[in-house]
Amino acid sequence: MTTNTNSLHQRPLGRSGLSVSEIGYGAWGIGADMWKGAQDDESLTALRRYVALGGNFIDTKCR
Fold first, then answer.
1. How far is it, in rounded angstroms, from Cα 63 to Cα 54?
2. Alpha-carbon span 52 to 4, nearest angstrom
3. If exposure means fewest CB atoms within 10 Å of the residue's CB, which of 35, 49, 53, 62 is most exposed?
């Protein structure tokens, strides 16, 4: 097994017992009508890369 040196560090989320990545992913721009100029293929590539690096803290806007 190899170690990925490009993985995101994790931290505990308060006292919840959850561990989240230190760097969050701001996903607001992925919404088609929310951010003009965003390309779905580029957005999905970036999101998949974030998850592949160990990211699990995704900020979304809920209405």
1. 27
2. 10
3. 62
Query: Hey, is 47 helix, strand or coil?
Result: helix
- The per-residue pLDDT for range 30-45, each reduced to its tens digit, is 766 666 777 888 889 9
> Position of tokens 């965003």?
38
Type and span of the H or E element at 18: none
Residue 55 in tokens: 């990211």
- The pair of structure tokens assigned to 23 is 């760097």
6: CB partners within 8 A, 6+ apart: 53
What type of residue sits at position 14? G
Amino acid at site 40: D
